[in-house]
TrEMBL record:
Renumbered residue ranges of the record's region Disordered: 221-271
SUPFAM superfamilies in the record: Nucleotidylyl transferase (SSF52374)
Pathway where this protein functions: Cofactor biosynthesis; NAD(+) biosynthesis; deamido-NAD(+) from nicotinate D-ribonucleotide: step 1/1
Family designation: Belongs to the NadD family.
Protein name: Probable nicotinate-nucleotide adenylyltransferase
GO molecular function: ATP binding; nicotinate-nucleotide adenylyltransferase activity
Pfam families membership: CTP_transf_like
Functional description taken from the UniProt entry: Catalyzes the reversible adenylation of nicotinate mononucleotide (NaMN) to nicotinic acid adenine dinucleotide (NaAD).
Record keywords, A-Z: ATP-binding, NAD, Nucleotide-binding, Nucleotidyltransferase, Pyridine nucleotide biosynthesis, Transferase
Enzyme Commission number: 2.7.7.18
UniProt gene name: nadD
Catalysed reaction, written as an equation: nicotinate beta-D-ribonucleotide + ATP + H(+) = deamido-NAD(+) + diphosphate
UniProt keyword Nucleotidyltransferase, yes or no: yes
Compositional bias annotation for Low complexity: 221-252
Protein backbone atom coordinates (compact mmCIF):
# COMPACT_ATOMS: atom_id res chain seq x y z
CA UNK A 1 0.00 0.00 0.00
CA UNK A 2 1.36 3.37 -1.00
CA UNK A 3 2.14 5.46 2.05
CA UNK A 4 0.85 8.61 0.36
CA UNK A 5 -2.74 7.42 0.41
CA UNK A 6 -2.63 6.40 4.06
CA UNK A 7 -1.38 9.87 4.95
CA UNK A 8 -3.99 11.51 2.77
CA UNK A 9 -6.74 9.54 4.51
CA UNK A 10 -5.58 10.58 7.97
CA UNK A 11 -8.29 11.88 10.31
CA UNK A 12 -9.17 15.57 10.43
CA UNK A 13 -7.10 17.54 12.88
CA UNK A 14 -10.21 18.91 14.63
CA UNK A 15 -11.49 15.41 15.41
CA UNK A 16 -14.67 15.81 13.34
CA UNK A 17 -15.50 12.70 11.28
CA UNK A 18 -13.96 12.67 7.82
CA UNK A 19 -16.36 13.04 4.88
CA UNK A 20 -14.62 11.37 1.97
CA UNK A 21 -15.71 11.50 -1.67
CA UNK A 22 -14.57 8.77 -4.07
CA UNK A 23 -14.87 9.06 -7.85
CA UNK A 24 -14.06 5.85 -9.69
CA UNK A 25 -13.65 5.78 -13.43
CA UNK A 26 -11.83 4.40 -16.42
CA UNK A 27 -10.68 7.97 -17.15
CA UNK A 28 -9.66 7.15 -20.72
CA UNK A 29 -9.08 10.10 -20.76
CA UNK A 30 -10.26 12.09 -17.72
CA UNK A 31 -12.24 15.16 -18.82
CA UNK A 32 -14.00 18.22 -17.43
CA UNK A 33 -17.23 16.25 -16.87
CA UNK A 34 -15.40 14.19 -14.23
CA UNK A 35 -13.85 17.26 -12.62
CA UNK A 36 -17.10 19.22 -12.51
CA UNK A 37 -18.87 16.22 -10.97
CA UNK A 38 -16.24 15.81 -8.26
CA UNK A 39 -16.13 19.50 -7.40
CA UNK A 40 -19.93 19.79 -7.33
CA UNK A 41 -20.13 16.79 -4.97
CA UNK A 42 -17.39 18.20 -2.76
CA UNK A 43 -18.99 21.57 -2.31
CA UNK A 44 -22.63 20.45 -2.09
CA UNK A 45 -22.03 17.67 0.44
CA UNK A 46 -19.21 19.50 2.24
CA UNK A 47 -16.79 16.69 1.60
CA UNK A 48 -13.35 17.16 3.11
CA UNK A 49 -11.55 15.48 0.23
CA UNK A 50 -12.28 13.69 -3.03
CA UNK A 51 -10.26 10.66 -4.09
CA UNK A 52 -10.01 9.79 -7.79
CA UNK A 53 -9.66 6.06 -8.38
CA UNK A 54 -8.68 5.08 -11.93
CA UNK A 55 -9.82 1.51 -12.53
CA UNK A 56 -6.81 -0.77 -13.01
CA UNK A 57 -8.84 -3.40 -14.84
CA UNK A 58 -12.38 -2.04 -15.41
CA UNK A 59 -14.52 -5.11 -14.68
CA UNK A 60 -17.12 -4.43 -17.34
CA UNK A 61 -14.95 -3.26 -20.22
CA UNK A 62 -13.04 -5.13 -22.91
CA UNK A 63 -9.38 -4.82 -21.83
CA UNK A 64 -8.33 -4.57 -25.47
CA UNK A 65 -10.45 -1.43 -25.86
CA UNK A 66 -9.03 0.35 -22.82
CA UNK A 67 -5.74 2.28 -22.72
CA UNK A 68 -2.92 1.18 -20.51
CA UNK A 69 -3.76 1.83 -16.86
CA UNK A 70 -0.50 3.68 -16.29
CA UNK A 71 -1.42 6.29 -18.90
CA UNK A 72 -4.94 6.69 -17.45
CA UNK A 73 -3.54 7.02 -13.95
CA UNK A 74 -0.99 9.62 -15.00
CA UNK A 75 -3.56 11.73 -16.84
CA UNK A 76 -5.74 11.64 -13.73
CA UNK A 77 -2.84 12.80 -11.57
CA UNK A 78 -2.27 15.70 -13.97
CA UNK A 79 -5.95 16.64 -14.04
CA UNK A 80 -6.39 16.65 -10.27
CA UNK A 81 -3.15 18.45 -9.43
CA UNK A 82 -4.70 21.90 -9.41
CA UNK A 83 -7.28 21.21 -6.73
CA UNK A 84 -5.92 20.89 -3.19
CA UNK A 85 -8.90 18.77 -2.12
CA UNK A 86 -8.35 16.19 -4.86
CA UNK A 87 -6.00 13.23 -4.86
CA UNK A 88 -5.44 10.31 -7.22
CA UNK A 89 -4.69 6.83 -6.00
CA UNK A 90 -3.19 3.82 -7.75
CA UNK A 91 -5.02 1.50 -5.37
CA UNK A 92 -6.84 -0.33 -8.18
CA UNK A 93 -3.77 -0.42 -10.41
CA UNK A 94 -1.78 -2.17 -7.73
CA UNK A 95 -4.49 -4.68 -6.80
CA UNK A 96 -4.63 -7.99 -8.64
CA UNK A 97 -7.67 -8.95 -10.70
CA UNK A 98 -10.69 -6.95 -11.87
CA UNK A 99 -11.13 -3.59 -10.13
CA UNK A 100 -14.37 -4.20 -8.27
CA UNK A 101 -15.69 -1.06 -6.59
CA UNK A 102 -16.99 -2.92 -3.54
CA UNK A 103 -13.43 -4.10 -2.78
CA UNK A 104 -12.10 -0.56 -3.14
CA UNK A 105 -14.76 0.94 -0.88
CA UNK A 106 -14.14 -1.65 1.83
CA UNK A 107 -10.41 -1.07 1.60
CA UNK A 108 -10.83 2.72 1.83
CA UNK A 109 -13.28 2.47 4.73
CA UNK A 110 -10.85 0.29 6.65
CA UNK A 111 -8.06 2.78 6.00
CA UNK A 112 -10.12 5.88 6.85
CA UNK A 113 -11.51 4.34 10.05
CA UNK A 114 -14.98 3.75 11.44
CA UNK A 115 -15.77 7.43 12.01
CA UNK A 116 -15.35 8.35 8.35
CA UNK A 117 -18.24 8.47 5.89
CA UNK A 118 -17.43 7.39 2.37
CA UNK A 119 -19.46 8.86 -0.53
CA UNK A 120 -19.11 7.12 -3.88
CA UNK A 121 -19.75 9.60 -6.71
CA UNK A 122 -21.11 8.28 -10.00
CA UNK A 123 -22.97 9.50 -13.06
CA UNK A 124 -26.60 8.48 -13.48
CA UNK A 125 -25.68 6.36 -16.54
CA UNK A 126 -23.33 4.29 -14.40
CA UNK A 127 -25.62 4.03 -11.38
CA UNK A 128 -28.46 2.39 -13.30
CA UNK A 129 -26.09 -0.53 -14.03
CA UNK A 130 -25.32 -1.03 -10.33
CA UNK A 131 -27.41 -4.21 -9.94
CA UNK A 132 -24.98 -5.97 -12.29
CA UNK A 133 -21.86 -4.92 -10.35
CA UNK A 134 -19.95 -7.23 -8.02
CA UNK A 135 -21.95 -7.27 -4.79
CA UNK A 136 -24.92 -5.62 -6.54
CA UNK A 137 -26.96 -3.30 -4.33
CA UNK A 138 -24.82 -4.43 -1.39
CA UNK A 139 -22.54 -1.59 -2.48
CA UNK A 140 -25.02 0.72 -0.76
CA UNK A 141 -24.10 -0.86 2.58
CA UNK A 142 -20.48 0.17 2.03
CA UNK A 143 -21.04 3.82 1.12
CA UNK A 144 -23.40 6.70 0.58
CA UNK A 145 -23.98 7.17 -3.14
CA UNK A 146 -23.97 10.56 -4.85
CA UNK A 147 -25.61 10.36 -8.28
CA UNK A 148 -24.68 13.25 -10.56
CA UNK A 149 -26.85 14.06 -13.54
CA UNK A 150 -25.50 13.33 -16.99
CA UNK A 151 -26.98 14.40 -20.31
CA UNK A 152 -28.33 11.62 -22.47
CA UNK A 153 -29.74 9.25 -19.88
CA UNK A 154 -33.53 9.02 -20.00
CA UNK A 155 -34.89 10.20 -16.63
CA UNK A 156 -37.13 7.13 -16.40
CA UNK A 157 -34.15 4.77 -16.22
CA UNK A 158 -32.85 6.46 -13.09
CA UNK A 159 -36.33 6.69 -11.58
CA UNK A 160 -36.88 2.96 -12.17
CA UNK A 161 -33.59 2.22 -10.41
CA UNK A 162 -34.51 4.43 -7.45
CA UNK A 163 -37.98 2.92 -7.19
CA UNK A 164 -36.47 -0.56 -7.09
CA UNK A 165 -34.52 0.17 -3.92
CA UNK A 166 -35.72 -0.81 -0.47
CA UNK A 167 -36.24 2.29 1.73
CA UNK A 168 -33.09 1.83 3.83
CA UNK A 169 -30.92 1.68 0.74
CA UNK A 170 -32.82 4.45 -1.06
CA UNK A 171 -31.99 6.72 1.88
CA UNK A 172 -28.30 6.30 1.09
CA UNK A 173 -28.67 7.57 -2.49
CA UNK A 174 -28.40 11.32 -3.04
CA UNK A 175 -29.22 12.99 -6.35
CA UNK A 176 -27.11 15.96 -7.36
CA UNK A 177 -27.95 18.02 -10.44
CA UNK A 178 -24.73 19.42 -11.91
CA UNK A 179 -24.06 21.66 -14.92
CA UNK A 180 -24.66 19.44 -17.93
CA UNK A 181 -21.40 18.57 -19.65
CA UNK A 182 -22.34 16.67 -22.78
CA UNK A 183 -19.03 14.95 -23.38
CA UNK A 184 -17.62 11.51 -22.72
CA UNK A 185 -14.21 9.87 -22.92
CA UNK A 186 -15.53 8.02 -25.97
CA UNK A 187 -16.19 11.36 -27.71
CA UNK A 188 -12.73 12.55 -26.84
CA UNK A 189 -11.02 9.43 -28.16
CA UNK A 190 -12.99 9.79 -31.38
CA UNK A 191 -12.03 13.44 -31.66
CA UNK A 192 -8.33 12.69 -31.32
CA UNK A 193 -8.56 9.80 -33.77
CA UNK A 194 -10.18 12.14 -36.28
CA UNK A 195 -7.59 14.87 -35.70
CA UNK A 196 -10.10 17.19 -34.02
CA UNK A 197 -9.35 19.41 -31.05
CA UNK A 198 -9.97 18.40 -27.42
CA UNK A 199 -8.80 21.73 -26.06
CA UNK A 200 -10.90 22.97 -23.10
CA UNK A 201 -12.67 19.61 -22.88
CA UNK A 202 -9.76 18.24 -20.86
CA UNK A 203 -7.23 20.12 -18.71
CA UNK A 204 -4.34 21.49 -20.78
CA UNK A 205 -1.87 19.10 -19.12
CA UNK A 206 -4.03 16.14 -20.15
CA UNK A 207 -4.28 17.43 -23.70
CA UNK A 208 -0.48 17.74 -23.83
CA UNK A 209 -0.09 14.22 -22.41
CA UNK A 210 -2.46 12.71 -24.99
CA UNK A 211 -0.48 14.28 -27.81
CA UNK A 212 2.93 13.56 -26.30
CA UNK A 213 2.20 9.81 -26.12
CA UNK A 214 0.10 9.67 -29.26
CA UNK A 215 -2.87 8.24 -27.40
CA UNK A 216 -6.09 7.52 -29.33
CA UNK A 217 -4.50 7.98 -32.73
CA UNK A 218 -5.20 5.35 -35.33
CA UNK A 219 -2.55 2.63 -35.36
CA UNK A 220 0.49 3.57 -37.38
CA UNK A 221 -0.20 7.30 -37.07
CA UNK A 222 3.01 8.80 -35.72
CA UNK A 223 3.49 8.58 -31.99
CA UNK A 224 0.39 6.40 -31.74
CA UNK A 225 2.30 3.47 -33.18
CA UNK A 226 4.68 3.69 -30.23
CA UNK A 227 1.90 3.24 -27.66
CA UNK A 228 2.68 -0.26 -26.47
CA UNK A 229 6.38 0.50 -26.14
CA UNK A 230 5.73 3.75 -24.30
CA UNK A 231 3.34 2.09 -21.87
CA UNK A 232 5.83 -0.66 -21.14
CA UNK A 233 8.52 1.94 -20.55
CA UNK A 234 6.24 3.81 -18.16
CA UNK A 235 5.60 0.63 -16.19
CA UNK A 236 9.33 -0.09 -16.02
CA UNK A 237 9.95 3.46 -14.82
CA UNK A 238 7.58 2.72 -11.93
CA UNK A 239 6.82 5.77 -9.86
CA UNK A 240 9.96 7.71 -10.67
CA UNK A 241 8.81 9.03 -14.02
CA UNK A 242 5.42 10.23 -12.83
CA UNK A 243 4.11 13.66 -13.67
CA UNK A 244 3.96 16.30 -11.01
CA UNK A 245 0.59 16.33 -9.32
CA UNK A 246 -1.65 15.13 -6.56
CA UNK A 247 -1.11 11.41 -6.78
CA UNK A 248 0.83 8.64 -5.17
CA UNK A 249 3.36 8.28 -7.96
CA UNK A 250 4.14 11.96 -7.76
CA UNK A 251 4.96 11.66 -4.09
CA UNK A 252 2.89 14.76 -3.44
CA UNK A 253 0.07 13.82 -1.15
CA UNK A 254 -2.19 16.68 -2.18
CA UNK A 255 -4.50 17.64 0.64
CA UNK A 256 -2.70 15.42 3.10
CA UNK A 257 -1.14 16.47 6.36
CA UNK A 258 1.31 19.29 6.13
CA UNK A 259 0.42 20.20 2.55
CA UNK A 260 -0.93 23.54 1.44
CA UNK A 261 -4.31 21.89 1.14
CA UNK A 262 -4.11 20.61 4.68
CA UNK A 263 -3.81 24.20 5.76
CA UNK A 264 -6.43 25.43 3.31
CA UNK A 265 -8.70 22.72 4.59
CA UNK A 266 -9.15 24.63 7.83
CA UNK A 267 -12.72 25.25 6.86
CA UNK A 268 -13.45 22.23 4.76
CA UNK A 269 -10.63 19.90 5.61
CA UNK A 270 -8.18 19.14 8.34
CA UNK A 271 -9.02 21.94 10.76
N1 LIG B 1 -20.01 14.39 -18.59
C1 LIG B 1 -20.25 13.75 -17.43
N2 LIG B 1 -21.18 14.22 -16.55
C2 LIG B 1 -21.44 13.55 -15.40
N3 LIG B 1 -20.83 12.40 -15.01
C3 LIG B 1 -19.92 11.88 -15.84
C4 LIG B 1 -19.58 12.52 -17.09
N4 LIG B 1 -18.64 11.78 -17.70
C5 LIG B 1 -18.40 10.72 -16.90
N5 LIG B 1 -19.17 10.77 -15.79
C6 LIG B 1 -19.18 9.79 -14.69
O1 LIG B 1 -17.84 9.62 -14.23
C7 LIG B 1 -17.60 8.24 -13.89
C8 LIG B 1 -16.42 7.69 -14.67
O2 LIG B 1 -16.75 7.76 -16.05
P1 LIG B 1 -15.82 7.20 -17.21
O3 LIG B 1 -14.39 7.29 -16.80
O4 LIG B 1 -16.31 5.90 -17.67
O5 LIG B 1 -16.07 8.31 -18.34
P2 LIG B 1 -16.99 8.24 -19.61
O6 LIG B 1 -16.91 9.60 -20.23
O7 LIG B 1 -18.34 7.71 -19.27
O8 LIG B 1 -16.16 7.18 -20.48
P3 LIG B 1 -16.53 6.31 -21.77
O9 LIG B 1 -17.13 7.22 -22.80
O10 LIG B 1 -15.19 5.75 -22.16
O11 LIG B 1 -17.49 5.23 -21.30
C9 LIG B 1 -18.91 7.50 -14.18
O12 LIG B 1 -19.64 7.43 -12.98
C10 LIG B 1 -19.61 8.41 -15.18
O13 LIG B 1 -21.03 8.29 -15.13
O1 LIG C 1 -17.51 -3.35 -9.24
C1 LIG C 1 -18.09 -3.57 -10.32
O2 LIG C 1 -18.60 -4.67 -10.59
C2 LIG C 1 -18.18 -2.44 -11.32
C3 LIG C 1 -18.86 -2.58 -12.54
C4 LIG C 1 -18.93 -1.49 -13.40
C5 LIG C 1 -18.31 -0.29 -13.07
N1 LIG C 1 -17.66 -0.20 -11.89
C6 LIG C 1 -16.95 1.05 -11.52
O3 LIG C 1 -17.73 2.17 -11.79
C7 LIG C 1 -16.86 3.28 -12.06
C8 LIG C 1 -17.31 3.93 -13.36
O4 LIG C 1 -17.17 2.99 -14.39
P1 LIG C 1 -17.00 3.48 -15.90
O5 LIG C 1 -17.17 2.30 -16.73
O6 LIG C 1 -18.09 4.48 -16.12
O7 LIG C 1 -15.65 4.06 -15.99
C9 LIG C 1 -15.45 2.71 -12.12
O8 LIG C 1 -14.82 2.95 -10.88
C10 LIG C 1 -15.69 1.23 -12.34
O9 LIG C 1 -14.66 0.40 -11.83
C11 LIG C 1 -17.58 -1.22 -11.03
Amino acid sequence: MARGLEEWLAPRRDGRPLQLGVLGGTFDPIHIGHLVAAEAARTHFRLDRVLFVPAGRPPHKDPAAVSDAEHRYRMTVLATAGNPYFYTTRLELDREGPSYTIDTLRQLSAMAGPEATVYFIAGADSVVTLPSWRGGLGLLDACQLIVVTRPGLPGEALQRFLDSLPAARRARVHLLPIPEIGISSTDLRERVAAGRSIRYLVPAAVEDYVHKYGLYRPRGAGAGSERAGEAAALRRAGTSGAPEGAGEAAGAPGAGPGSAAGAAGGGAGRA
